[in-house]
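Problem 12. The chain below contains 118 residues. Write out its predicted structure in token notation.
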Amino acid sequence: QVQLQESGPGLVKPSQALSLTCTVSGGSITTNSYYWKWCRQSPGKGLEWMGSITYSGTTYYSPSLKSRTSISRDTSKNQFTLHLSSVTPEDTAVYYCGRGGNSWLDYWGQGTQVTVSS
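Solution.
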């Protein structure tokens, strides 16, 4: 069974950069056909897809976040990392990593709370 675990800072100051890492066990991030995704849910809002990195390393980003977002990976550690620059209080959310296909998820982590505040 695939398991995903998010890690990173819980509190970030406005204008700083945020990096969150997803550690995957029970499956390889290079397994053919899978997309590895980052999503978030802000208070009172629905789940928002932020971006994906595929098994081959191709990345896709939400148009609304593309200018501030990048996703990288470390295949030796079976991890992928979200980088979000110039955060504002609007980026306060629970961040989730997950595995799936182009438009679906079958496994996801428990989520990690990130608060942007001075």
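Discussion. Residues 13 and 35 are 30 Å apart (CA to CA). Students who got a different answer should revisit the alignment rule from Section 12.3.
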